[in-house]
Amino acid sequence: MSEKKIKKVFIEGAISPLFIADAIAKHSTKKDIGAHSIFLGQVRNDVINNKEVKAIDYTAYNEMAEEKFHEIRETAFEKYSLTCMHIYHSLGRVNSGEISLFVFTSSKHRKDAMEACTYIVNRIKEEAPVWGKEIFEDESYIWKQNTP
Questions:
Q1: Among 30, 54, 136, 147, which residue's Cβ finds the most Cβ atoms within 10 Å?
Q2: Distance between CA 67 and CA 79 in Å, rounded?
Q3: Which helix (H) or strand (E) element contains residue 111?
Q4: CA-CA distances (angstroms) from residue 132 to 25, 26, 104, 125, 141?
C-alpha cells in the first residue's frame, strides 16, 4: 500500500447537484482525459412492510471507513489506467431522491474509467463500514441491507 495521504470522502447530508457539476467542470482543463464514468447512488423511496422509505440516515466507523476507502482507491489506481478519481459518501440524513454516493473516475479511454467505477462501487458496497437506517414516514426505521 502506498503512503499517499488518505483523502476525506464523507460529506454531511446529501451530495448536491451543484457539488457534482462543479467536480465535473473542474476536469475540463485536464486535456489528457478522454473519458469519465460517474456513479450516483440515490436514495429510493422503497416500500417495505407497507411503509415508504423517506430517508436514509448514514453512519460510519469514520477512521476505519476512511482507511477502507483509501485502500479501494489505491487498488483501483493499480488495477486500472486512471487519470484521477473522486469518491464521496454522505453521512447523516439523506432524503429519498437525493444523492448519497458519488464516484467519479477519469482516464484516457472509456474502458478503464467505466470498469474502475464499477469496481469501486462494488467494493464500497461489500466492504466499507458504512451503515444506513431506512427511515419511514412515521420515523420508525430498519437497518438497510446492501445489495450488489
A1: 136
A2: 18
A3: helix 110-127
A4: 30, 31, 22, 12, 10
In a domain, 60, yes or no: yes
Residue 6 belongs to some domain of the structure:
no
CA gap 22, 114 in Å, rounded:
20
When divided into structural domains, the chain yields a total of 1
Instruction: Express each pLDDT in 91-126 by its tens digit.
Output: 999 999 999 999 999 999 999 999 999 999 999 999
Domain contains 134: yes
Task: Compute φ and ψ for 32, nearest 5 degrees.
Answer: -90, 0
The span from the CA of 123 to the CA of 138, in Å, is: 33
Predicted confidence band of residue 148 (pLDDT cuts 50, 70, 90)? low
Tell me which long-range contacts 72-77 makes (C-beta under 8 A, separation of at least 24): 72/120, 72/123, 72/124, 72/127, 72/128, 73/7, 73/120, 74/1, 74/2, 74/4, 75/123, 76/105, 76/116, 76/119, 76/120
Kindly state the cell numbers that stand for 45. Answer: 423511496
Q: Are 105 and 34 in contact (CB under 8 A)?
A: no
Element (H, E) at 110: helix 110-127
